[in-house]
Amino acid sequence: MATVLENRPRSGGKKVILAEPRGFCAGVHRAIEIVERALEIHGPPVYVRKQIVHNEHVVRRLEERGARFVDSETEVPDGAVCIFSAHGVSPQVRGNAARRHLTVIDATCPLVAKVHQEARRFARDERTLILVGHADHEEIEGTFGEAPDRTIIVQDADEARRVHLPPGVPAAYLTQTTLSVDDTAEIVSILEERFPELTGPGSEDICYASQNRQNAVKAIAKRSDLVLVVGSANSSNTIRMVEVARAAGSQAHLLPDADRLDPGWLDGVGTVGLSAGASAPEVLVDEVIERLGDLGFTDIETEATASETVVFKLPSGLQRTSTNGTGAADDDTEDDTTSTLLLARATTLIEDLLSAECSRWGAVDARAAIPVEAVAELVAAGGKRLRPTFCVSGYLAAGGMGGEDAVAAAAAGLELLHAFALIHDDILDNSPTRRGVPTAHTRHAAVHAERGWVGEARRYGEGVAILAGDLAFGYANRLTRDLPARAREVWTDLTTEMIIGQQLDVALAAEPAPDADLARWIAVCKSGRYTIHRPLALGAAIAGRSDLQETFEAYGDAAGEAFQLRDDLLDAFGDSATTGKPAGLDVREHRMNLLLALAATSDAEVGRLVADGLDGGGWDPSRLHAAMVASGVRDEIERRIDLLVTSARAALDSAPLTDGWRRRLGEMAERVAYRDR
């Protein structure tokens, strides 16, 4: 996509809002690479049962390389290579393949495989299985085949209301991974109301990538006159994205490719939202951007609601060997599925808690639920989920087993703690936007003003936001109250350091003397330890590995300082359309962050402007920003970040981590240090 965006003017015409994430998910990447690797190893032809993923362009390209797509394993010549698609197959299909002596390569998405495993478990428990999904979809056909004699398929809310279970029969439900999150929630709610003893999966079945793409489409739909979703008509997750966009109030069309874009759709349209289903390649999005550009839509903006770093391991025998001298396979990512599922469980814990609290207090009075809804809105808006990710990573890197409930609760608590910090931080920083939308205090101040209520609108908005932050803090502590004793100690240190760091941040905004050592301590305390060191230590403590505390402190403080310096650079020199918050806010609000403190102590002109500002009651933001640009501090900070990343990696060199985690944590340090938002 870089070529398209670089060659296309980015402003001056009608607007395109690109959703991020979009396109290929980890399961699709894995499935396509499996076919490509099978062709390299076995030579053409290789046979693929059904479409490997639901996209015409992908299938056509693989056919050109020698893949042969068949409707049934019975069409594959005896003894040939047969690849099962990402959607999974039934035990009957596996039996047929075995009888024909096929060389089977299984490209089933690990998240679909998890649903199959749950179906087998419920069947062993002699439960009737209610399978929520589309009866004619390959994924449902495969899962149904695990226990056909005790499975009922429910496709929509009406069928959920009509399904019959004999009295006293134990039942469970599972869902197709590519459904609409909202529709599935309604169906499950109906089933749970009708069958109070109904059991569900241990964690959410809806694929994280489907959730992320639906959330991204919701976000762009609110700002778009028309939403286009690139993908094929037989792609369930793509169809769901179109439905989600329409439910959010926008016109929406599924678009297989740029050639099928109807210019009539654009009549009266000023802003087009653009996304792609999980099986649609980015080249198709590039072509649509080109076509829209030809039609006058040349102002291109990206709206990011989540960051995806999941990679699924290839099956044994297809992995590429490493060329980096480590001796490890490049695809050695055995813990990715576990990490994804634990983070999904954390998300479910948060959503269930906030939904229950909204219902509880909304029943008292609609106004009582307002601060809970403010927390829920911030959490649902996305974000990087760094702290939960580092917590889960610390647990897995420490070889944790049997503490999955605790680490999911800790990860959920960290995300709600972060919501608390952001809501209060936005008030303290006087920030009007967060993640591209109005902050809680700004939004509720505007409501007060629009409705002409009594009192001061600003104070009302800030009051609502303060209470919302307090609730988020309380909910975070509720989720983590049953952690092991050592983990509770880490949690207490984490929350205390973050708040004390924030107090010193406030103090330096009132007395902004350029003290680089104190500014660095604040950065490490309220960002480095809070974002990386303590979450890692929390995960390790849950795993019972106190011996990793020193390693994670050295790694986390270095990577955390790099993270904060990148944050300072993005604030000073970044693009607000990319970061989702106003650029230059720290300078305008007289915050002596680490970047400014270093610049003031190393450059005479920056130091003079800061000193003059202190004497005169406030510095000139535009002149100070210009001086910082001229000072070369940006290059100096980039070099400092490089050294910090090197230090973080060095801290892992001799650490007793489980296989692959030394490399993975090193890569995570690079991602947080060199991010663009």
Q: Distance between termini? A: 18 Å
User: Helix count?
Assistant: 27
- CATH superfamily of the largest domain, by name, is Farnesyl Diphosphate Synthase
Query: Helix/strand/pairing class, anyone?
Result: alpha/beta
* Number of spatially distinct domains: 4
Number of strands: 14
Helicity, in percent?
A: 55-70%
CATH topology of the largest domain: Farnesyl Diphosphate Synthase
What's the CATH architecture of the largest domain? Orthogonal Bundle
Query: What's the main sheet like?
Result: 5 strands, parallel
Which descriptor suits the 3D outline?
globular
- Please give the oligomerization state of what you see: single chain
In what order do the strands lie side by side in the largest sheet?
10-9-11-1-12
Query: Beta-strand percentage?
Result: 5-15%
List low-confidence stretches. Answer: 1-12, 321-334, 577-584
Radius of gyration: 26 Å
The average pLDDT score comes to 85
Which CATH C-level class of the largest domain is it? Answer: Mainly Alpha
